[in-house]
Amino acid sequence: MESTKLDLDNYRQLLKEYLLTKNETALYHAEQFSRLSVQHNISPEEMIHIHIEALKDLYPELPREVSDSLNFLLEAMISYGLALQENHVLREKQSELESEISVAANMQKTLLSTVKPAIQGLDIGAISVPANHMNGDYYHFVTNKENKLGIALADVIGKGIPAALAMSMIKYSMDSFPESQQDPQAILENLNRVVERNVDPSMFITMFYGLYNPENETFSYASAGHEPCFYYHAHNNAFEEIQAPGLVLGVKEDTVYQQFVRKVEKGDCLILLTDGVTECRVGDRFVECDEVLQVINNYIHLPAQEAVEHVFHYFEKLQDFHLRDDFTLIIIKKEV
User: Fold this and answer.
1) I need a surface site. Which of 53, 236, 244, 274 has the fewest CB within 10 A?
2) DSSP state of 67
3) Considering only 3-12, 205-214, 260-269, which range has the smallest mean pLDDT?
4) Is 135 exposed, middle or buried (0-12, 13-18, 19+ CB in 10 A)?
5) What is the C-alpha end-to-end distance of the chain, expressed in Å?
6) What is d(CA 207, CA 272) in angstroms, rounded to the nearest whole number?
């Protein structure tokens, strides 16, 4: 057979040939017939109907039980065909959505990209890995003419594209602030007003903002409900929680944030992170904070960038390479 045509006579002939001879060639042509049926959008129930008509033509005295069972199959395949069409449409929509999300994720990386600055006397390491396509975490470095280093770390309570859009708004709001308003307290209070006016009330943003002054080697900071960060004391190999109470951004327009300051000694480290680090889950349990700090301590002697990457890979492996939440970790080491 040079070609396979989509008609009843052709199918009848193929069926008759196979029933009489059990010929493999007939099976091959039946397979080709099915492929052409798909290409011409012939539904499964139409295929069953063609088979029934061909069988009745070949065997007019077909037993009633066989005829009834074929009719039963035809009715079942009608529902199957409708479900198959719906599934096909859903798969096409899902493919389109995944493509759009991929484009949005790439745009987010571009819009929220930040350059790790070179500050004399500091060794800086940073890593941020989304659990899914879009990252609900955000970090940003800001430097000014006085060589002060601003570090913003935020986490949207919410995921996906809305979270990404909120982060973009935060980033560009920060870019619009003048250098005279680099104090953490002023930064958070200004951003709080922006979030309160422009973000849906169901979405909140936690944020930690710190400012390192190389002239007097101090670190000023404030927090808007963000995950506690840590200070590492090199002289006694101990961690101290950085206390900075404050409401999450967007709750009250007139929220006032407290600003704190501390001296950064040589060899010590600032450890800034999101809850994707401290609330890492293994099975049904959360990893304890002490365990997180122990892991960080295992790598704290390494250059800062190597340290954050080793910590990430440890917890990634611990979770079977499936992150439950966005993971962001920054280590700032005061060089000796």
Assistant:
1) 236
2) H
3) 3-12
4) buried
5) 84
6) 11
Cα–Cα dist 302/51, whole Å: 72
Q: What is the DSSP letter of 180?
A: G
DSSP 235: T
- Token pair for residue 170? 């935060």
Mean pLDDT for the stretch of residues 39-52: 80
Strand partners, 151: 141, 210
pLDDT at 2: 40
> Which residues are within 8 A (CB) of 209 and not within 5 positions of it... i.e. 6 or more apart?
150, 151, 152, 153, 184, 187, 188, 221, 222, 223
DSSP string, 240-269: EEE----PPBTS-TT-----EEEE--TT-E
Residue 5 has φ and ψ, to the nearest 5°, of -105, 145
In this structure, are residues 320 and 254 in contact, taking their beta carbons and an 8 Å threshold? no
Question: What's the rounded mean pLDDT across residues 26-30?
Answer: 81
Banded pLDDT at 331 (limits 50, 70, 90): very high
On the question of pLDDT at 39 being above 60, the answer is yes
